[in-house]
Structure formats: structure tokens, C-alpha cells
Amino acid sequence: MISFLMRRTIPRCRAYSSQTTSELTKVEVNEKTGVAVVTLNRPPVNGLNVAALRSLEKVIGDLETNKCKGLILSSSSKNIFCAGLDLTEIYKPDQEKLKSLWTAFQDLWIKLYGASFPTTAALNGHAIAGGCVLALSCDYRVMVPNSSIGLNETELGISPTAWIIASMQNVLSKRSVELALLQGRIYKTNQALEIGLIDEIANDKDETIKKCEEFIAKYSRVQSLAFSLTKRELRGKAISELTSNRQGDLQFFVDSINNPSVQKFLEKYLQSLKSKKN
Ligand SMILES: CCCC/C=C\CC(=O)SCCNC(=O)CCNC(=O)[C@H](O)C(C)(C)COP(=O)(O)OP(=O)(O)OC[C@H]1O[C@@H](n2cnc3c(N)ncnc32)[C@H](O)[C@@H]1OP(=O)(O)O
User: Fold this and answer.
1) Which among 48, 81, 87, 254 is the best mutation to test ligand 1's pocket, defined by most ligand atoms within 8 Å of the CB?
2) 83, 168, 169, 275: which has the highest count of C-beta atoms within 10 A?
């Protein structure tokens, strides 16, 4: 068992009593149920840079090794689950860092989408672009009211690649995927529920976690091996398509980001985010 499962320094009366905290990803494992709450912790918006992506990927790998019974992905921010890739890493990017960013995102998706245990997203706030991809890579999504979720890549001038599309197609009807992706549409919580982009609405963060726990508990009678083999049958094709075309997928991303019109848009977009406060 890895350290966070072994540690017994925190009183057992707490529901989630084994824990480890890295700067970027906090993990708490419920010793009774084996369910892990994994909290993204990169203020202010959990922007995904290489370190954040790698930190989360490592945690999922460790949970896999330790036969975790279920994952609840959450965020330490008050009203944001994750604002997607760190825009400052893709605007005027260092080329090597850009490649590392996408490679880390590919690696994380392969682990999360293919996880051999039930995975859930406790969406305590906005889940935009890469943040929505994280949510879609889980088996179940619960969101608080008045938040937004969606893939706005086409608005940014980039096209989501095959594995991102596959993650959305796994959840939504073909028609809804077309409308969502071609319009780069961001949905409010209630609209997201209507089309099936999320599964449930919860009143607050605690309730998102409770509902995710309830969802994971439904698998208590399911054999782990049967679960993971079935998931592999269901999702394996999309994963192997990426693993056999990682270089092509990376090149597509790098070329898209380096496109001068995308860079121009990102400049304005970043300015507009900053000027919201003024
Ligand atoms: C082949 C291509 C596939 C590509 C796949 C994925 C691509 C991506 O993920 S690109 C990222 C796209 N993300 C977005 O468009 C989200 C942008 N952000 C927002 O819409 C809002 O910030 C959000 C709704 C998440 C939260 O709104 P607020 O609560 O009002 O916060 P602020 O907007 O004031 O943001 C606070 C602070 O954070 C900065 N910020 C926001 N998002 C990002 C980001 N993704 N990366 C880096 N930084 C981000 C924002 O500029 C503010 O900065 P300061 O002004 O310096 O405080």
C-alpha cells in the first residue's frame, strides 16, 4: 500500500481518514469504503499546466495500483471545478513546454477514461474546456446550480481532437455532440442536465460528494474484474485510437495552437478575462 493508504495519523472517526496532500492534488481515502476524494488544488481556477496534469495522473496511477474502490474528483476552489488548460501556457508558447502539456493531457486522459474503478466528478463549479474533458472522462457527473460546463474549443479557434470528441460521444446523443462542439457551447447547470452532460444537480459541494459516493456504492456488488473488463470493452477503442496515433494527435494540437489566428484570439481572450475585474 502506498503511503496515503497506510497512514493512520488522522483520527479514524473522520469519514475520510487517510490522506496525502501534494501542492496540486489532495487525496483523501475513506478507509471503510476505499473511495478516494481527489481534489484539484491550483488556485485560482485549477488551470491545467504540466505539473497539475502530471500530479493528477500520478494520483490516478497510484489509486489503480492500490485497487481503489472509486474516485471522486473535486476542486478546492469555491466556485470553479477547472477552467481547462492553463491559457498562459498556450499563448505565445514555449514549443517544448507546449508538447509536454499535450502529452501530459493525453497520458492523464488515458488513465482517467480507462480507470478500472468507478470514477465521478463532483462539480462544485465551472468546468470549461479541459475541465469539461476531465468531467467527461469520469463515469458520472454531479454539479452545483448556476455553473457552466462545455467544450468551447471552436470558439477559441481550435478543434477538439478525436479522443475529446469520443469522451463527449460517450455521454451525449450524436445530435447534442454536434451542436455542442460545432457551436463551442457552454451550458448552464440546468441545461447540462437536460441534455445529459451532467447526471445530477446537488445543492452544494458537500452534496456533490455525497451523491458521487452514492453512485459509487451502486457498484459494491459488482466484481472488480468484470467491471474493468467491461469498461475496457466499452472505452478501449477510443483509447487505442489515441495510443496508436499519439504523435499525429500531438502535432495537430501544436499546429492548431501555433496558428496565428488562434494566437491572436488567445491574446484578446486573455485580456477580456483580465479586464472583467476592471
Ligand atoms: C485540440 C485542442 C483541444 C483543446 C482542449 C482543451 C483546451 C483548453 O482547455 S483551453 C482553456 C479554455 N478555458 C477557458 O476558456 C476558460 C476561461 N475562463 C473562464 O471562462 C472563467 O475564468 C471561469 C468561468 C472559469 C471563472 O470565472 P471567474 O470566477 O469570474 O474567474 P476569472 O475569470 O476572474 O478568472 C480568475 C483568474 O484566472 C484566470 N484564468 C481563467 N481561466 C484561465 C485559464 N484557463 N488559464 C489560465 N488562467 C485562467 C483569469 O484570467 C483570472 O486571472 P487574474 O485576472 O490574473 O486574476
Assistant:
1) 87
2) 83
Paired sense of beta strands 70-75 and 35-40, if any: parallel
Read off the pTM. 0.94
Count of all residues that appear for the chain in the document: 278
Neighbours of 157 (CB within 10 A): 17
For residue 83, report the distance from its CA to the centre of ligand 1, in Å. 5
- Residue 184 known to be catalytic: no
Query: Catalytic one among 84, 130, 131, 184?
Result: 130
152 in active site: yes
Residue nearest to atom 33 of ligand 1 (CA): 273
Q: Using a 6 Å CB cutoff, which residues line ligand 1?
A: 44-45, 47, 79-80, 83-88, 126, 128-130, 152-153, 158, 160-161, 164, 253, 256, 273-274, 276-277
What value of ipTM does the predicted structure carry? 0.98
Share of the chain above pLDDT 90, in %: 89
The alpha carbon of 20 and the centre of ligand 1 are apart by a number of angstroms equal to 27
> Residues 6 or more apart from 221 whose CB is under 8 A from it?
none
